[in-house]
Amino acid sequence: MSSSTAASGTGPLTDAVPLSLCAREPHVPADRLVAEMVPPPRFDSVRFGTYLPDPNQPSQTEAVRVLEEFAAGLGGAESGSGRRRLFGFGRAPKKAPAGPRGVYLDGGYGVGKTHLLASLWHATDAEPARKAFGTFVELTNLVGALGFQQTVQTLSGHRLLCIDEFELDDPGDTVLVSTLLGKLVDAGVALAATSNTLPGKLGEGRFAAADFLREIQGLSAHFRALRIDGEDYRHRGLPEAPAPHSDEQVTRAAHATAGASLDAFPDLLEHLARIHPSRYGALTDGIAAVCLTGVRPVPDQSTALRLVVLADRLYDREVPVLASGLPFDRLFSEEMLKGGYRKKYFRAISRLTALARDAGRLVDAR
Question: Residue 265 pLDDT > 90, yes or no?
Fold first, then answer.
């Protein structure tokens, strides 16, 4: 194509060749996995003061109040090396206080649970090396990289561990992480968590606190559940998934955007199968925008779950996604959207839709 096509509104091609996610095979050392256990870039600047409670949902305002008090109670505490510290509020007495030693945020997708969890991390008065933030998947990847005992030793000196999207789909992983958290509780580490939906426990499209507390068994007494009601903020007053662009528009935007990647969607799905999900974050390092051609329904559940992880990493990093083919709300089959992983798929649709809106400027600016 020549620059003479700029009149079409898509702009001229640049001399730069787009990057390709399919050409990347990142290797992530274990120490990077530990160092990166901080809120993702999208949540670098969030604080309790930047959370905007829905005036029609008083539980949101109450959650902010409780979490602010919880963070304040962690400020002067000590942890690690056999020393006990306070999980609750105020100064630590000689004996650990009775009652909840952690918080669990119970609510549907898009109500701001991750915003509040990251705000708790930021508000806790401890250097970053003594507080950790990660998804359930990232925590299990850490155990896989370091081994169970080394993970316990690494995290035992922390003041706070925040776990986003605690997944209860795999009983083995649930037992593993529950056992890990038990060790950390004994070492004096405060816990905060959100979680995903259990298969067959879909209800209102939100994970029930009772299910979470039952699955973590002996740890349930350490958690105070905070229910956060509300609708998905990404869809409040906004249109559904935007219409996809043409292959030409996507290709031209990839060439005209420094740091953009360009891949055929089917090729990317195949490539994801060759890379462990713990490396999907590194896969997107330095990517300014993801451009995809030929988006179509994912063929099977394993592929769909890998795509969910990639969507989470892209959303965390605020990487816009420009695509041709089908709109993102048609990625998953009706059977998938009614199955046990339903909430994950709806979260992926919600997040990819938000990133697709962000990517509109890549075409509009051409």
Answer: yes
Q: Give CA separation, 209 vs 180, 193, 202, 219, 312, in Å.
A: 20, 11, 12, 13, 23
Half-sphere exposure of 250 (CA within 13 A, CB side): 23
CA pair distance 237, 78, nearest whole angstrom? 45
| DSSP assigned state of 17 | P
Q: Are residues 250 and 291 in contact, defined by beta-carbon separation less than 8 angstroms?
A: yes
Region of 188 (left: φ > 0; alpha: ψ -120 to 50; beta: rest) is: left
The pLDDT tens digits for 35-86 are 889 998 889 999 999 999 989 999 999 999 999 999 999 865 444 433 333 3
Q: Which residue in 128, 103, 112 sits closest to 38, CA to CA?
A: 128
Q: Could you give the CA distance from residue 56 to residue 67 in angstroms, rounded to a whole number?
A: 20
Chain mean position to CA 178:
20
pLDDT recorded at residue 343: 76
Separation CA 114–CA 79 (nearest Å): 25
**Whole-model pTM?**
0.72
Beta bridge partners of 133: 162
Residues 6+ apart with CB under 8 A from 279: 26, 27, 28
